[in-house]
């Protein structure tokens, strides 16, 4: 039987599937109203199931329970001809949700998160979006900020020294970085000469025309210079820890040639000794020795509040520490000692609490009453007494204590807690130990026979001058329903502490005291910020001749304050710093 025709409705422009959907919808809506009794002899009709809500329809068209007030009226399509039947047709059509455009979000409902389309357009600036805007994470509230460590309570005019090596810096600012682009040959040469002569550059607080400032551009080139050994242009010699995949497949003629390996190590030993002599003469402030397993940071006397030369090694293993002890190298594990001191203080507090509790329990117990002992405690050593060997259990107990201690030492291997600190004349013994240590060079794998990497802020014998790679990126980012110009400057390479500070001083003048930076840390070196100072007062003896800017030297002379962490985000506003670690 055909369905009754709807007045004012022509089915000519509808397809059969659409007609069937409309027919089913009308039947479901007309069934509750049809209260006519069934014909004689016919079984009573079972009540129909409630209509399912169309998942593609809006909430306004969802079926409502009895007594639920209707939702507020909204604009609908005008009924054809103004007839009620036409209006009901449009209601049915909207209920089905066919050919209905999706409702667009109002401007007030839009989020400030970059849309996927915007993210595609700004794929070169995805880090900027992460820094300045909320991150779209599955299952997270977009309006809640990501948990970050505490920041300084108030901005400061200097950020703490960060002794970790950075692999990448990304500076962003509302002012362009055109002054860092396309340096002229004369400016580049002048920057190299200023670095070699340790020329001190003092810029005004704000440079009016940065792109036209030759002094600024030369100082920028000067801040990018560092010294490296060995120099193998086809190999990336930093970082060395976990770099097997990057080195694999590259030409390494020394891997199977022992004579060539000895030549490379002999040349490396000369460069290493030259660096240490410069450090001892206070002509080099610090340098790094990067092996495939650990990194060593040598610092001159006068830095980090120490009046003697210091060296920190991380991460270490039990075997390396035993080998150092056998060579007579005295060292300490500052993080382990700090943890032991903290536990001792906590145990003293707990002991006082337990004593107080035991006194309270003793007062509450009746006279002559003793605490009950468990059966396990009574019978724990009864079998030893029966055998008559209860007095001979000291040797197994001592062995177990030694095994437990060795297990604890092994467990902290390759962790930040394994940081070793060497001071004074022991650093020279450490130098000889590293030169003669066979495990310093990999015996298998892509790094076989490759000497460790030496990184220094000043020139040394056998060192090769290198420069950090810099490039500027200009793009637009969506901020509060509008697009703003975002300028960024990317620095790639082994960024040492002095380079980071020098660059921030330049940006302070060129960007008018307003910029932000994301810092990517080589994680094995982050623990270098945890080495304790030997003296509370800053000591600087003849260090101005080490080749660093006086302000940079002042920063590196301060006692470490970052602990085991490093600076991850740095921001300057109105010539004052805030940071997150």
Brief characterization of the structure:
The chain has helices spanning 16-30, 84-96, 116-121, 126-132, 185-196, 214-223, 244-247, 258-280, 318-326, 334-364, 375-379, 382-387, 394-411, 426-436, 497-510, 550-557, and strands spanning 166-173, 225-229, 286-290, 295-299, 310-314, 331-332, 420-423, 453-456, 464-467, 469-479, 482-495, 515-521, 569-573, 576-580.
Task: Set down the secondary structure blueprint.
Layout: H1 16-30, H2 84-96, H3 116-121, H4 126-132, E1 166-173, H5 185-196, H6 214-223, E2 225-229, H7 244-247, H8 258-280, E3 286-290, E4 295-299, E5 310-314, H9 318-326, E6 331-332, H10 334-364, H11 375-379, H12 382-387, H13 394-411, E7 420-423, H14 426-436, E8 453-456, E9 464-467, E10 469-479, E11 482-495, H15 497-510, E12 515-521, H16 550-557, E13 569-573, E14 576-580
Antiparallel strand pairs: 1-11, 1-12, 2-8, 2-9, 3-4, 3-8, 4-5, 5-7, 6-7, 10-11, 12-13, 13-14
**What count of helical segments does DSSP give?**
16
Write down the overall geometry: globular
User: Percent of residues in helical segments?
Assistant: 25-40%
Cα-based radius of gyration, to the nearest Å:
37 Å
Mean model confidence by pLDDT: 76
The largest sheet, given as strand count, sense and whether it forms a barrel, is:
8 strands, antiparallel
Query: Order of helices and strands, N to C?
Result: HHHHEHHEHHEEEHEHHHHEHEEEEHEHEE
- How would you name the oligomeric state of the polypeptide chains in this document? single chain
Query: What amount of the residues lies in strands?
Result: 5-15%
Low-confidence segments, ≥5 residues, pLDDT <50?
A: 73-90, 92-151, 361-379
How would you write the strand order of the largest sheet? 6-7-5-4-3-8-2-9
Structural class: alpha+beta
Please report the distance between the alpha carbons of the first and last residues.
76 Å
What is the β-strand count? 14
């Amino acid at each position: 039987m055909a369905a009754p025709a709807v007045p004012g409705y022509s089915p000519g422009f509808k397809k059969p599937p659409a007609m069937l959907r409309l027919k089913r919808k009308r039947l479901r809506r007309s069934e509750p109203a049809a209260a006519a009794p069934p014909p004689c002899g016919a079984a009573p009709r079972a009540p129909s199931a409630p209509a399912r809500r169309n998942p593609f329809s809006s909430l306004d068209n969802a079926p409502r329970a009895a007594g639920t007030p209707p939702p507020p009226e909204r604009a609908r399509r005008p009924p054809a001809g103004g007839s009620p039947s036409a209006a009901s047709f449009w209601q049915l059509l909207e209920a089905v949700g066919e050919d209905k455009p999706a409702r667009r979000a109002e401007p007030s409902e839009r989020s400030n998160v970059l849309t996927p389309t915007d993210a595609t357009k700004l794929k070169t600036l995805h880090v900027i979006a992460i820094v300045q805007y909320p991150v779209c994470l599955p299952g997270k509230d977009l309006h809640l900020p990501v948990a970050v460590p505490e920041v300084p309570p108030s901005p400061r005019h200097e950020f703490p020294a960060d002794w970790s090596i950075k692999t990448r810096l990304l500076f962003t600012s509302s002012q362009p970085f055109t002054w860092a682009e396309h340096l002229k040959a004369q400016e580049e040469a002048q920057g190299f000469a200023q670095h070699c002569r340790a020329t001190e550059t003092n810029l005004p607080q704000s440079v009016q025309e940065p792109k036209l400032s030759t002094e600024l551009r030369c100082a920028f080139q000067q801040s990018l210079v560092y010294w490296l050994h060995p120099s193998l242009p086809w190999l990336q010699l930093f970082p060395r820890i976990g770099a097997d995949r990057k080195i694999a497949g590259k030409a390494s003629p020394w891997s199977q040639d022992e004579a060539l390996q000895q030549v490379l190590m002999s040349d490396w030993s000369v460069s290493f000794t030259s660096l240490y002599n410069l450090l001892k003469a206070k002509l080099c402030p610090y340098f790094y020795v990067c092996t495939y397993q650990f990194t060593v940071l040598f610092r001159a006397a006068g830095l980090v509040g120490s009046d003697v030369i210091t060296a920190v090694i991380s991460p270490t293993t039990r075997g390396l520490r035993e080998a150092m002890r056998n060579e007579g190298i005295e060292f300490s594990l500052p993080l382990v000692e700090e943890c032991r001191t903290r536990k001792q203080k906590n145990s003293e507090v707990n002991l006082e609490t337990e004593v107080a509790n035991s006194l309270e329990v003793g007062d509450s117990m009746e006279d002559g009453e003793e605490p009950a002992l468990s059966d396990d405690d009574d019978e724990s050593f009864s079998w030893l007494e029966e055998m008559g060997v209860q007095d001979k259990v000291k040797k197994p107990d001592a062995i177990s204590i030694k095994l437990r201690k060795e297990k604890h030492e092994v467990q902290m291997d390759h962790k930040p807690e394994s940081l070793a600190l060497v001071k004074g004349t022991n650093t020279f013994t450490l130098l000889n130990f590293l030169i003669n240590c066979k495990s310093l060079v990999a015996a298998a794998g892509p790094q076989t026979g490759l000497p460790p990497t030496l990184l220094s802020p000043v020139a040394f014998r056998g060192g090769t001058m290198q420069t950090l790679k810099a490039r500027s990126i200009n793009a637009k980012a969506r901020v509060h329903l509008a697009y703003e110009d975002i300028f960024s400057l990317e620095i790639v390479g082994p960024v040492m502490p002095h380079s980071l500070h020098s660059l921030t001083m330049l940006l302070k003048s060129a960007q008018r005291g307003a910029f932000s930076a994301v810092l990517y840390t080589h994680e094995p070196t982050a623990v270098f910020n945890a080495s304790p100072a030997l003296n509370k007062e800053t000591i600087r003896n003849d260090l101005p001749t080490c080749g660093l800017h006086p302000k940079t030297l002042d920063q590196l002379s301060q006692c470490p304050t970052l602990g085991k962490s490093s600076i991850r985000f740095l921001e300057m506003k109105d010539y004052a710093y805030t940071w997150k670690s």
